[in-house]
């Protein structure tokens, strides 16, 4: 027997409809790609999205068509999202920091039919357009005055194009399980894999994200998503902010400390989110200038483990609450957020910082477990680590095109590829990637723990640990070090610094010094490249 | 093209699974029906729910079976909910304040197959069991020591019964659109109508309810639902609290000021919710004793318009935030919550109280509009009032058995039967019920406005306004008054008190004094009865 409740599909256009009805005048402030700060509202964003949808439909784009965006975070990019979804299409965010060839590879894999592109990225599209045969239309997101000369065909100037629509259009009818968005993983461990979000997953993720113990944001917040819309769905903020009616502040292409500070201050931002490296730049800038953060109350930090020093600076010096979060493109992306349950709520000082090193508990809507290689559940004791597996309505069920099928089991669990432990109160901590963890004599060694320890040495600028083959133990850790300018520590200096702080058998067998450690386009250490570099490396006997 | 996201149905047992996994030790504290305070946890609640589900399945209860509860708010009642839902059944809450015949009528209408009953309500079941032929099993929620002698057949003692299960059971497989709960409306305007909740509607409602601008509750909250589980689904708190991992404090059958205060204080309650009359009793008690509310931060008040004096006392004297809410059994029940958007956020004092008289904006998941009788949209100007219509995933699509079909239109809008205006920032205010509003010469007069005004007179204890037939104007208002003890105001005293405070043509044509105004089982003025009482009444010429 079914309940007698309304069919009200969870579709994304309801989010922008809601924002335009309940929060029509709420501002969306952008640092435009052309330079100036531009102010608009949810009501305008909706009006212009409707026009985009109308134009796309008129020009023959159909339900399910992938339409790429290559753009910074601005109101225009947000309009493009809702316009594409409103036409029944699938917004496909591209990371402009990838090499043009990688972008072309991803576009071909997704079979993108059109692209919305920022002025600054027109040169990229000029390089690759001919390699992407499905691409039928290029919309340069600027006005006539700024429209560049280009050799591209089928190109239009966004504002001119929009002026051809009157917005007298109804959102294309879609079901909640229809695809609406697409994002490829960062490609840290191999080829990027395509994740295809549905309307339902985006709406549910946005609700989960707004909950008090997740991001905890409401209409009185002013939200600055520094995390790019092309990085894991902007952590859902493009849906969450209009759903709750929060003012949005979009940083455009400038994410240096000064530019971010300017927005935080001028727009009285209360909530912001980004990867650790962005915050390093901001904190450095604040230290140099002596500026403070009187309006900001909360910062979500994730995408990579948040160094303790960043958390401490924010909380102790600037009185800003840090929420350490873990997520994946495959999870829309939020998987856990380290907010305090009553069990930890009265902690302060160092004891609180200890907890904030963890990636935290999963909110309702994310099921989590850790298993050994054979799939047996492991205990939640805060020590035993294993493969981290998840289930939920905003978790991928497969990759676009069928890659990585082995990561999905028949009970619906997705193997995240991360290795973690979970404590008795449900607080998860990432200890490694399963492709990076070192298997030494049947036991696991966390490379992240070793790296965190090594960078604590005063002469070390960056550290990476990889496993190298060992005749007796299968694998043993090699520590790769970039020295700080003007320093030249000996191998043994570093090893004896580490000794006693970890189990003896975890101590790296050797230290190698390099000028640079390879990184991905999202700034993560690229261990695949590092392993290639040290493929012929022989450990000392 | 579908998204490639997991199928993860929104079913209620996931809520209690989540609570037991992520918040196993979180307390559920009850004032038991037997008297003492009883402490349990979400982990226990889940274990015992599993046993209930196991027993119900073993005894032949099947998916979709309605299983009644006649009980106060306690952990046992909560276990019964999750046990019934976990067996694929439909919990059907009964209001013990109804006359036994009304309860029997509702049970027969729902065709309840079993009932979980509190010790205190066994006499009611004894009276009606023979009138409900579908009823196959009666579970008295107590232990052997307290089990009463009873003439009832097919009766078991809850704790004895539970001891026959080992909990080795998997929740019965249900889809998210399957029915899981049922509640009849209060019967204020006619026969009670059955609302059939689905798993999906309950889960989505719980998420909506927890959002920062709705109830805004999290794991560090201690939630006391004074609003009964048999009244409109306990405003969703039986799902919301475990979903967010908040400690629950259940008041049992004692809702007087002293008993509620005891729990608020001893359990350090941070959040509570109930109808205005409960808060009147508490505030009176606090005034008499001089006690304060140091732990409580927020109280949600709804079910009937919240008098300004209550809001002011809570906010100004006890520093507790009042959230005025509107809802209906048909809406699971939350429809709007008067929290502050930025447009009103800097108001203080009387100007803030003015806003808190409104029932507030709708959260995401509730669409709202006002129309005239012909169905034309009315403007959101804070003055023009009309029929309030809603849509949403937790709004009924029809009544059980098909009553009231005229309230549902073909675009999915449900006519709430309430009359309201909405202001430019989306703040809704109820002005009347459509069955009560007085149509005088084609224009509408709000009976609630007149009543609120009349009770402001120092000699008036209670006031109700009804329309009576008028040869020229169709209907004109009659003011019915219960005088305060020892006071005897003249008709004209009251009318001249009202004059000048409302449009002249709104002034009641007459005043009638009565000893008592009839009320429903949920404490609302029963205007149907009052209209009957004054059916032959002739207005003065
Ligand atoms: N707070 C965090 N602490 C540690 N690691 C994190 C954190 N947040 C995210 N990560 C890492 O980032 C990963 C998700 O990143 P993303 O989806 O951008 O692609 P990727 O995993 O880096 O690339 P690919 O899957 O293509 O190899 C997680 O699986 C985890 O390894
Ligand atoms: N904050 C509020 N202010 C004014 N009225 C309210 C408020 N909250 C609820 N109500 C009234 O209560 C109604 C919902 O109550 P409920 O579902 O318990 O049944 P009922 O409408 O009283 O009974 P029935 O539908 O059987 O006549 C709303 O439609 C509205 O009239
Ligand atoms: Mg990955
Ligand atoms: Mg009603």
UniProtKB/TrEMBL annotation, chains A, B:
PROSITE patterns: AMP_BINDING. It holds the Pfam family AMP-binding. It is an enzyme of class 6 (ligase). It catalyses: 3-(methylsulfanyl)propanoate + ATP + CoA = 3-(methylsulfanyl)propanoyl-CoA + AMP + diphosphate. Residues 450-524 form the AMP-binding enzyme C-terminal domain. GO terms for biological process: fatty acid metabolic process. Residues 19-400 form the AMP-dependent synthetase/ligase domain. Its EC number is 6.2.1.44. Belongs to the ATP-dependent AMP-binding enzyme family. This is 3-methylmercaptopropionyl-CoA ligase.
